[in-house]
Amino acid sequence: QRLLVESGGGLVQAGGSLTLSCAASAVAFSYYDMAWFRQAPGKERESVAAISQSGGSKDYADSVKGRFAISRENAKNTVYLQMNSLKPEDTAVYYCAARPGSGGSLPRQPYMYNLWGLGTQVTVSS
């Protein structure tokens, strides 16, 4: 059973927008910090954005600040990533990840997250 399922990826032109969704099942969603990572071919997986259990704290990679927005709806067990002003360098597989919330800072290291989705491809054409 897949616990985290991403959707919303696709092909978009530069300057366009996409919204990714990650639906969680069989987990106490509201107790988890959630994050989006991405991995481009030949590159390491990198943090894109993270959000705390309550949604009160958010963290963004410098490369996406001002363009991407992370949000969550605990009642729907879903986390979102709104991506605007997309660039070709945003092309990657985007992964949803979760970790039990600690109330502290939101980590950017992939190994700090213990639940992962299978990813959704985002391709931005120039």
Please characterize this protein's 3D structure.
The chain is mostly beta strands and 126 residues long. 0% of the residues lie in helices and 48% in strands. Strands 2, 4, 5, 6, 9, 10 and 11 form a 7-stranded mixed β-sheet that branches. A 4-stranded antiparallel β-sheet has the order 1-3-8-7, with no helix packed on it. Strand 5 and strand 6 form a beta hairpin. The chain starts with a strand and ends with a strand. The mean pLDDT is 96.
Briefly say what this structure is.
With 126 residues, this protein is mainly β. The chain contains no helices and 11 strands. The strands form 2 sheets. Strands 2, 4, 5, 6, 9, 10 and 11 form a 7-stranded mixed sheet that branches. It has a 4-stranded antiparallel sheet with strand order 1-3-8-7, with no helix packed on it.
Mean pLDDT: 96
Radius of gyration: 13 Å
Query: How much helical structure, as a percent, in the residues?
Result: under 10%
Structural class: mainly beta
Strand percentage: over 45%
Number of helices in the DSSP assignment:
0
* Straight-line N-to-C gap: 37 Å
Spans of 5+ residues with little confidence (pLDDT < 50)?
none
Main sheet summary: 7 strands, mixed
Shape, per Cα inertia axes: globular
- The count of β-strands is 11
Instruction: Please write the string of helix (H) and strand (E) elements.
Output: EEEEEEEEEEE
SSE diagram, text form:
Blueprint: E1 4-7, E2 10-13, E3 18-24, E4 32-39, E5 46-51, E6 58-60, E7 68-73, E8 78-83, E9 92-100, E10 115-116, E11 120-125
Parallel strand pairs: 2-11
Antiparallel strand pairs: 1-3, 3-8, 4-5, 4-9, 5-6, 7-8, 9-10, 9-11
